[in-house]
Amino acid sequence: MEGYAGLCIYYNYDFTKNIHMVEALVNKANQLSDKYQLSQFQCMFSDSDRFTRYKKVTKKNFVELFKELRKKTFESISFYDSFNEDFNISLTFDLFPPEAREDKGRYSQDLYLIINNIVVENEFKQFAEFGKFAWSVLD
Amino acid sequence: MVRARLNEFKQFVEFGKFAWSVLDCCYGFIYSAPNCTDVQSELTAIPISPVEKELSEKEIKREEELDFYQDNRQYMHKYIRKAYWGNFLNKNHIVAIGGIDFVKKSSLSLIIEEIANDGIYIQLARSLMDFEKSDFQMELKELNRLLQAVKLRKES
Asked: Does B23 touch chain A (CB under 8 A)?
């Protein structure tokens, strides 16, 4: 049996009051990157009506990108895991500003942070790490 | 594979409950699919596959469905998308479906737990690993019918 499972939680969040949280998030993500030797964070950012345009960003400009988007609403958190031997952890943060959606199209300025393909020996440890990580950056 | 069989996705359930206890949560679910893209799309309610590629009729239909959910995310405190193996519902959802007793009366074998902030977690009792089996899908359809009152529909 192979496949993937994911969890998604929708919640209310006032992003404008919590830029410090995003910075903490980036710091933690950087720590994870170093720890698990991720080559880069892949960030897919769309500012058009459809997903026709992506911008990939690396750690270096990550904080700046978040800062640009700090007036948005932070709406969901999700992660997934594969059933097979490969281990993936994905953090997806969606930012949906209503005003941008009205002005520029439904998918204006959605941000995805995806940390992919973390393969480690102790798989369980990842969930513990993720739990601590979430605990440390979320309210 | 061993990990999944041993833990039966307990991590997802536990993390969902954890999130529910620390965040102002309104809705959540646990989903499974044979491929990664499907899971990611479902989790984000947006088709993440590049639109440049030619899409099949089935894929277009799926994208339209996800588009609809995406457009209506602001109503998730009142409505749900559909029934999943694991469902995190808030008190508005519970009231709308006729109370938790209504769910308990179902012939389905369910795990029903109270969670933080007056929320309820409802899960099919069977393993998520069975997600491709026909009887699993039948149970999911039945749960879908049970939660019909809070499903977000296009006519809503």
From this structure: yes
